[in-house]
Amino acid sequence: MLLRSCVHAVREAADSILSVILAPACAACTEPLAHPTRGPVCARCWQAVLPLTPPICDRCGEPLPSWRLLDVPLCPRCHRTDVAVDRARAVGAYDGALRAIIHAIKYDARRSLARPLGELMRTRGAAVLSNAVCAVPVPLHPSRRRARGFNQAADLARQLGVPVVAALRRVEATRPQTGLPAAERHRNVRRAFAVTRAGRLLPGAVVVLVDDVATTGATLEACARVLKDSGVAEVRALTAARVVGRVRND
Ligand SMILES: [Zn+2]
Ligand SMILES: [Zn+2]
After folding, report:
1. For residue 58, how far is its CA from the centre of ligand 2 (angstroms)?
2. pLDDT tens-digit readout, 130-174
3. Residue 61 CA, ligand 2 centroid: distance in Å
4. Positive/negative CA dihedral, 236, 240, 243, 249
5. CA atoms of 11 and 28, how far apart (whole Å)
6. Which ligand gives the minimal distance to the CA of 100?
7. Structure letter (DSSP) for residue 29
8. Contact 119, 159 (CB under 8 A)
9. How far is the first Cα of the chain from the last one, in angstroms, to the nearest whole number?
10. How far is it, in rounded angstroms, from Cα 83 to Cα 171?
């Protein structure tokens, strides 16, 4: 008890000194951080990362306009088409604070944020993770991986409490999906992935694909197809965010 209050006091002191001397800004909202020792994003921004509200499509996780229809709630696309991703979920919509946090990880290399964000994925994605044998990060092409220095999907996957298996590799450097319309995105990534040697050891398994953002789902779908072709029984997907309702050019 005494130790805990000591640690608290030291932390408070460090926070006041750091916030005055260095005046670090929140990596998401750019307001000065009151508690810099608690990480580069302020508590208000984390609280603003809201879950997607039901009803959502049981398969892809897209929010649905209402409960009417609905024995098994499915969005029109999942009703219509045969998809390889059996179940996809996200922490929240790709917007506001969540989008800013993801940008901070990817474009400002604030990799320490992958831990709290991954923990949020672990909590909100518990149903997707349950009885999965491993998490499979969506790979970057080696040239992009080299340029960025890390793969944010792998950083997030390490926080999920299941083994991480690099089951996929990127065989074609695709154009960035950013700015492409949905049909183009599917075409762009269709043959972009192959299963690695480790990935061939997963026949009959339930695996969870992990990525930072699902935009149209084209990348996840392409990954899921090659995994299933190599014998994986069930492919689920867990992302930090998903674009809701429409394709954003981002
Ligand atoms: Zn903030
Ligand atoms: Zn759906």
Report:
1. 7
2. 999 999 999 998 888 999 999 999 999 999 999 999 999 998 766
3. 6
4. negative
5. 22
6. 1
7. T
8. yes
9. 48
10. 22
